[in-house]
Design goal:
Helices cover 11% and strands 36% of the residues. The radius of gyration is 20 Å and the shape is elongated. Strands 1-2-7-6 form a four-stranded antiparallel β-sheet, with no helix packed on it. It has a three-stranded antiparallel β-sheet with strand order 3-4-5, with no helix packed on it. Strand 6 and strand 7 form a beta hairpin. The protein has two domains: 30 residues, no CATH class; 94 residues, Immunoglobulin-like (Sandwich). With 136 residues, it is mainly β. The termini are far apart.
């Protein structure tokens, strides 16, 4: 849990330009639907899994914008509700967002057996990686 004190820390003049990052963290929604997992494969690879029973590939939209991963879902086909005696599988429209750290890029997305799996890699440009300078 992030406290107000933690957010105030980034308002310190030492942290130049972090205000936009803090705003992004605060605007990421915290809904419970659909359920998801975040898995750390290694230092530079993460997997986001969403349980999307009843959704098809064409019902899902995945985008990245302004340092966020955004997953939206909306069923395109209309089921006749009059046929259902009980409808326990949620099929409502949703939007889920995650803040992405610097250099994080979505590598791939796969829908299989009602699970959406999104692979996110940290791809640091060569000029930003540490390099050793040879002394002459």
């Amino acid at each position: 849990m992030v406290t107000t004190y933690t957010w105030d820390l980034f308002k310190d003049p030492f942290f130049i330009g972090f205000d936009k990052m803090v705003n992004n963290w605060q605007t990421v929604n915290a809904t419970n639907y659909p359920p998801y997992n975040v898995i750390k494969e290694d230092e530079d690879t993460f997997i986001v899994e969403l349980a999307l029973a009843g959704f098809r590939r064409e019902d899902i939209e995945i985008t990245t914008h302004d340092g966020k991963l955004i997953v939206k879902g909306e069923l395109k086909s209309e089921d006749d509700d009059s046929k259902f005696i009980h409808r326990g599988i949620a099929a409502r429209k949703f939007t889920r967002e995650w803040a992405l750290a610097e250099y994080m890029e979505v590598a791939s997305a796969e829908m299989k057996d009602g699970m959406l799996k999104i692979i996110i890699d940290r791809i640091v440009p060569e000029e930003k990686k540490p390099r050793q300078i040879k002394v002459k």
